[in-house]
């Protein structure tokens, strides 16, 4: 199964839904991020209902990435009788959930950089997004595929870039912004153009849009996620 998307917008474009993606393998849902619009989409499409196991990977704690996490956890526990696992490398998230009335007993905290089972391998990579918040991308491996998912980040980490150029990473999903501003938090398209050669751009999928620049991306040979 390919990575599916529930939304491809940034925090300031709720019409596109918050950027969040998932894979279902067997009846196990692997979800990346749970922004404000995500619970609504999961509920509407009965994705939580139809899966037996639910594992949620969080890239960082901005509202458009964790805004509905608390509701997802409590809905799964109290209504569906399912205990969600949440993967995040630091303990800040548990503290926040605790302040939001989500007891540690109703979900499983997996405070780690690496997650692995028979179906999937995920590894968190520290990325640069904002000075005051930690952010992680994820290397994901399943069904013989290996992809890099940037989370929110204004650069592609050097090791990831080298691996991609060497053909060891099949695909990149990259947070991309149309314009460059003095305050970097997402990767400007012009920077992406500088580092990705034209012949490899069909392996780079842009995500997390504030503006609609699909035509520009198409012209330059990049892929983009549409929901
Ligand atoms: Zn962010």
Automatic annotation (TrEMBL):
UniProt entry keywords in alphabetical sequence: Endonuclease, Hydrolase, Nuclease
Residue ranges of domain Metallo-beta-lactamase in the record: 17-208
Gene3D superfamilies found in the cross-reference section: Ribonuclease Z/Hydroxyacylglutathione hydrolase-like
Coiled-coil portions: none
Superkingdom, natural source: Bacteria
Family matches, as InterPro entries: Metallo-B-lactamas, RibonucZ/Hydroxyglut_hydro
SUPFAM superfamilies cross-referenced by the UniProt entry: Metallo-hydrolase/oxidoreductase
Gene Ontology molecular function: 3'-tRNA processing endoribonuclease activity
Listed SMART domains: Lactamase_B (SM00849)
Cross-referenced Pfam families: Anti-Pycsar_Apyc1
PANTHER family: ZINC PHOSPHODIESTERASE ELAC PROTEIN 1 (PTHR46018:SF2)
Protein name: Ribonuclease Z
Organism: Clostridium porci
């Amino acid at each position: 199964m390919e990575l599916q998307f529930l939304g491809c917008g940034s925090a300031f474009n709720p019409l596109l839904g918050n950027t969040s993606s998932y894979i279902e393998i067997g009846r196990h849902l692997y979800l990346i991020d749970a922004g404000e619009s995500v619970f609504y989409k999961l509920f509407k499409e009965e994705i939580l209902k139809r899966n037996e196991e639910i594992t949620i990977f969080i890239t960082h704690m901005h509202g458009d990435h964790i805004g509905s996490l608390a509701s997802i956890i409590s809905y799964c526990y109290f209504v569906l009788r399912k205990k969600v696992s949440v993967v995040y490398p630091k303990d800040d998230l548990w503290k926040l959930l605790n302040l939001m009335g989500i007891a540690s007993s109703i979900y499983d905290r997996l405070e780690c950089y690496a997650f692995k089972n028979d179906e999937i391998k995920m590894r968190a990579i520290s990325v640069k997004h904002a000075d005051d918040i930690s952010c992680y991308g994820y290397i994901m491996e399943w069904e013989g595929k290996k992809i890099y998912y940037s989370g929110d980040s204004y650069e592609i980490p050097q090791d990831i870039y080298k691996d991609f150029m060497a053909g060891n990473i099949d695909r990149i999903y990259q947070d991309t912004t149309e314009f460059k501003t003095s305050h970097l938090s997402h990767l400007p398209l012009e920077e992406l153009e500088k580092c990705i050669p034209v012949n490899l751009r069909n392996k780079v999928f842009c995500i997390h849009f504030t503006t609609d620049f699909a035509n520009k991306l198409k012209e330059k040979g990049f892929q983009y996620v549409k929901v």
